[in-house]
Amino acid sequence: MLDSSHLLFPSSFPVLKRRKLETIQVNLGYRCNMSCQHCHVDAGPNRTESMDRKTVEQVIDFMRSFPISSLDLTGGAPELNPHFRFLVKQARGLDVRVIDRCNLTVLEEPEQATLAEFLAANHVEIVASLPCYQEENVDSQRGKGTYESSIRGLKMLNALGYGDPASGLELNLVYNPSGPHLPPPQEILEADYKTELLDRFGIHFNRLYTLTNMPILRFGSLLQSQGKFDGYLDLLRSAFDQNNLNNVMCLNQISVDWQGYLFDCDFNQMLDMPLAHAGCARTHISELVGEELNGATIKVAEHCYGCTAGQGSSCGGALNK
Hints:
Elements: E1 16-17, E2 23-27, H1 53-65, E3 70-74, H2 84-93, E4 97-102, H3 115-121, E5 125-129, H4 135-142, H5 146-159, E6 171-175, H6 186-201, E7 207-210, H7 217-225, H8 229-238, E8 253-256, E9 262-263, H9 266-270, E10 297-298, H10 305-308
Parallel strand pairs: 2-3, 2-8, 3-4, 4-5, 5-6, 6-7
Antiparallel strand pairs: 1-10, 8-9
């Protein structure tokens, strides 16, 4: 795989300062049952990195000591971590909102037969990847058979009440472009998704999030191999919208890697750009208990233009809706 990280420096991206911390996004490991083309984590079935029980308990200790509102679980496939369910139960016991970034196909893994019921019983919000409502596009980006498995997963979740506003069980979908271009307007695409999935399969969901692909790791390598890396960065820079700076996710969120070390965002984690705190080269979540990050400088590079281009992009979808 071609390394694109050195192409992101130096950077002209504006200075950003942290605000009150509200969300911790925890990467439970890089093991995944899939190897998606656009994956910025380079996750896959052969990855072995996985957060251990001690680090999971340190995450829980942090939640007990700091009044965060949301725990955002990602991977890889976060559900494949053996301590996933323990962490979810502990967080819900602390009245923390839990988000599971689910690839849908994991629901059909043999050892995950009760996963959907577990998520519903603990009122876990699901953010599910479905990069298109057309089978050909999904399978070309994520692997043959992914679309059919994803549709079965969505039907399974709907049967449990997910996507029904009356149930309180949120099911949100994620769209990623299939190539080096920006996502279309989120609200328009959401309407198309809802029409297509309802008419063809009777599937309901709450919201669609559109995410811009980041020029790092697997997608960055693909761009380089196609000779499109510089052109894509130029596209992101030219579409920069100053108004998006006020809403980027790193202002009130931190990212925790599978070993417990802290980063300003998941993308910085993949680029090994640790969070700057108290003059330390790296800060572990166990060292942050009772500490305040408000006002700290956020590390930036050229990939940050991906979050501020056009309508903007974050883990919660478009910034400028």
